[in-house]
Amino acid sequence: MRPVYVLGVGAHPWGKFPGKPQLKLAIEALSAALRDAGLAFTDLQAVVAASSRFEGGMGWGLHANELLQAVAETGIPAINVGGGCAAGGIAVHTAVSMIASGKHDIVAAVGAERMPKGFIPRPPGSPDDISDTDYLRWVTMGATNPAYWALEARRRMHDVGTTEEIFAKASVLMHHNAVANPLARYRAECSVAEVLSSPVVADPLRLLEICAVSDGAAVVLLGSLDQARRLGVPLVEVAASAIATGQFGDPSIRIPTVSTIAATGVSHTSEVVGAVRTALEHAGMGPEDVDFVELADNTVWHVLAWPELFGFFEPGQADWMLEHGELAIGGRLPVNPSGGFLSFGEATTAQGVLQICEIVWQLRGQAAGHQVPNAKVGLSAVLGLGANGASIVLKT
Amino acid sequence: MNSIERIPVARELFTWTDDAGTYLIGSRCSGCGAHYFPKSISCRNPRCNAKEVHDVLLGPRGRLFSFTAQGYRPPPLFRMEPWAPYVIGMVELPEGLRVMGMLTGVTGDAVRIGMELELTVEPLYRDAEGREVVTYKFKPVDLGSAP
Lengths: 396, 147
Prior knowledge:
Chain A is built from 13 helices and 12 strands. Chain A is α/β, with parallel strands linked by helices. Chain B has one domain (9-140). Chain B is 0% helix and 46% strand. The two termini of chain B are 24 Å apart. Strand 9 of chain A pairs antiparallel with strand 8 (97-103) of chain B, so a sheet runs across the interface.
């Protein structure tokens, strides 16, 4: 296996774009990434796309094919990967593997999504019986996605004493980080009082503590060291990438299931923890080597709980870190200097690719207004339906 | 008495009688002893090679592990008439399972993690034929009553 470098990154801003098809978002992000790298469409040797659940892909998740047919019919390989909301991370991981193997020198990883309004609908053709837990969770108890996260948040309050104010402060931090990020959808500061006075969605979680859904697109161009040198781009290396699935006995009840077998000694959110631990191991690093993280903060609970699950802190310690500014830009472990899902809204399959773009900008020192000082190593973590996890470590 | 017919909101998910109480219908693997809810097509334990699951009744008691309040009306697949805010609990069963379900017989302020709960059924709505459509719920154990 040979080392893999980032040749270019590009993203379409996050928001709601009713007049712009998802394919158009993807084309703009790909064009931006090619400009960033100084490459042309004809330089691409393969495209890996995260398959969207909601739009395009010819109805079969063929997003890489659709993109090539729309913008550059060069005849190169197209690979489409599923993975729910972790598909973006899995697409980057796949592209990294293709470069590392030596088969390809320049590969694009693409994520683009336009989210439906309101609740995410069940896939067409799902059976109305006990074989479909998504059906069950609705008809038996009306369990919304925020209800699942609220159960975790409430349990955290019980276990380590997290207060509603501390949860609110995590939201304040995410929104603060996004103020200077032109790609973020929500760029206004908010106060603890504003968070606490926003409507309760699923007690104890409030509207400003749960991510919205957005439209967006992001592209990462990966390549060999030779290509990076030839192009003269700043050298950002993929220290490691890993994907994982859930482990038997994981105590978390996953959306949309209604039960779990909780075994001792098995990590909570094991699909993501497994990916993070594998990535760090392959990078030859420990938590102390990571300068900042970009993680999937569907809620404020994730901002606090995930760094602990990954082994960066002891259980409950993230609350203290947050209160003392250690999770902020300039702190011991900045969490989501981009502003995270809480400031972007989640464009599901595109999110795992956007995380890599943000890490690259940070490592290049191009994150104006939200730059992590002396950022040398960044780690991503993303979770998807089907118990999918992905984590990528970049270094400069 | 009992003039209104009651039907479950989903078939093969739970069962109840006035005398014996309410139970969830799950699976148990005879190879490794793991329990599942709802019924499972196989055994997820990677170290189990038997993969022999059969139906088993789960419950009727457990302890509250966590909870949340549903304060706004979920999308239409969930039918509850009349609609009113309710509590969803995550309940630990002795079989090693954590199960989600609605709570009843306890208001938000009185819900406590660790409280002992038992299964029951309650109507969600009436269907077109006038039958009561019921779901399983967890209610506080009445310590004064016979088990």
